[in-house]
Design goal:
Elements: E1 2-3, H1 20-34, H2 41-61, H3 68-72, H4 85-96, H5 108-123, E2 127-133, H6 148-159, E3 163-167, H7 176-182, H8 184-192, H9 197-200, E4 203-207, E5 212-216, E6 222-224, H10 227-230
Parallel strand pairs: 1-2, 2-3, 3-4
Antiparallel strand pairs: 4-5, 5-6
Length: about 240
Amino acid sequence: MSSVNLLFEPHVGSIARRDMLIEFIKAELYHGFALGLSETYAPTMKRIEVLIEEHRAQVRENPLAVSRLKNAVPSVSSFHTPLPLEEAWRRYDNKYCVSARRTVAPSFNEVRHTLNLAQVMALAPEIEMACFDGDQTLYSDGGNFANKELASVLIMLMENNVKVVLITAAGYGFDGSKYEIRVRGLLDAMVMAELSEEVMGRFFVMGGECNYLLRCDASGHLVKVSDAEWEVSRLPLCHMP
């Protein structure tokens, strides 16, 4: 099963501790900024995209190969998918108008967001599950789900055959009613959308540090998933040949 796993994380501290691929891309974009040629941002991203794909091809043939990207960024490792950076940049730029700025160059975080968007775009056709924390992610710390726009996005994922999972430290055992309080806004939106039982069943809650698994039923309530369906100790062992 494929799931979303964003690879490019922010770092703090000295430059040596920061992601050097992001620093490299940021520096390449800066050339266009310094010359007042923001229209070169997208072609620059395309060039990086080509370098990444070239690197992937060389590493597949010889894991010790030193590609042009490896020469420029010695710390670069493997890429498990192509990264459509040019298209990701155009989408990001259309929303945040980075190219319209004249006094502020593209930032580290803007490059990181573009890389993450490219990774999501590359994985999208194969994604089967999307997992989210609760506090400070789906809802405010100690609060309850109340974001209608976010609810519509999560419902869209479920309608496209993606399982949506809330993973929370909140430990209410298998008492679905207590978890329901936290995600009432989402459950109500699902009921109002008149989703089929199959689609409703693609929403799960994993509570108590991964000890309690519940699934949404056709009526919008959270019910226990049988231990035999998901506990590793109860699943058939896979024997290596």
